[in-house]
Specification:
By secondary structure, the protein is α+β, with helices and mostly antiparallel strands. The chain has ten helices and eight strands. A hairpin with a 2-residue loop joins strand 3 (about 135-140) and strand 4.
């Protein structure tokens, strides 16, 4: 939508009239529509419409209504976007979501949007205040990458993954937390792709799917570390405004330290940190 602050010489009613007079899809774009580029900007508008409803997804008829497009046109554009990964489609629920390629392009196109730099002050504070190791995990295709970690002052360290290390999505508490907050279609696609990789850890796709369901019920992960049964990890997602998981924050500690009360303490601290990170990202102008 056009912001009044962008055009101080016009009134609020002028802005409303200008926006309302446009086609439905064009109301989701800022500023004037470049001549000869209607098809391109219409695609951008459809992606904005999906972004605003990404947590629940949208059925075709809902997109048609919001964008004021012919159903055949909307279906043709969405099919093309789906074929290149810009849009994902939940075949069972018949709902469209933003696709995984958008997030990957986003993270590479904006080098100043650096999750490691954004999250660093928060994991430093977590490690200092709670004494245990804190991690930032982000998605990269079918994998999760440890973007950063910070060790606490507890004399027995519990680093279960190193910075830059990759794991198949679903393995490890931070990685599982990211996977569980993706759409059903993405979860199914990733688990199917990673089946053979899970087997190397004596796990199956069905086991990972059950864990995903449990995470969705609880809203967080609390489980033993992938590399050591003597270590417990707790993880929560870093969600953008649309509900898409930008990554996860997690902490690990010795099993002997992980009482129910301490797990709850870590979870609350992680939740608070992720809310602050989300607000920070929003203040930067991102979703």
């Amino acid at each position: 939508m056009i912001r009044i602050s962008d055009k101080s010489d016009i009134s609020a009613s002028d802005v409303v009239n200008e926006v309302v007079s446009r086609p439905g899809w064009a109301q989701f774009l800022p500023g004037a529509i470049p001549a000869g580029a209607q098809g391109t900007v219409r695609i951008a508008a459809l992606l904005r419409i999906l972004a605003a409803n990404n947590s629940t997804g949208m059925k075709l008829h809902e997109i048609v209504s919001a964008a004021e497009l012919e159903q055949s046109t909307a279906h043709r554009v969405l099919s093309a976007l789906h074929s290149v990964g810009f849009v994902a489609r939940d075949e069972e629920a018949k709902r469209y979501h933003l696709g995984p390629l958008l997030f990957e392009l986003f993270t590479t196109a904006f080098p100043h949007f650096n999750m490691r730099e954004i999250c660093r002050p928060y994991i430093e504070r977590l490690a200092e205040e709670l004494g245990d190791t804190a991690y930032v995990m982000v998605q990269s295709g079918y994998d999760a990458i440890c973007a950063d970690l910070c060790q606490g002052n507890h004399p027995i360290r519990t680093c279960t993954v190193s910075v830059g290390q990759r794991r198949p999505l679903g393995l490890g508490c931070g990685s599982l937390c990211v996977l569980a907050h993706l759409s059903d279609q993405e979860v199914s696609r990733i688990i199917t792709h990673n089946q053979s990789r899970y087997a190397a850890y004596s796990l199956t796709g069905d086991i990972i799917l059950e864990r995903v369901k449990k995470v969705r019920e609880l809203g967080y992960v609390a489980q033993e570390a992938l590399t050591s049964s003597d270590v417990i990890g707790v993880a929560v997602p870093i969600l953008g405004k649309t509900g898409y998981p930008l990554g996860s924050l997690s902490m690990t500690a010795l099993r002997s330290r992980m009482t129910e009360e301490r797990i709850e303490t870590l979870r609350n601290a992680l939740d608070n940190a992720t809310r602050q990170i989300r607000d920070h990202i929003v203040d930067m102008g991102y979703v």
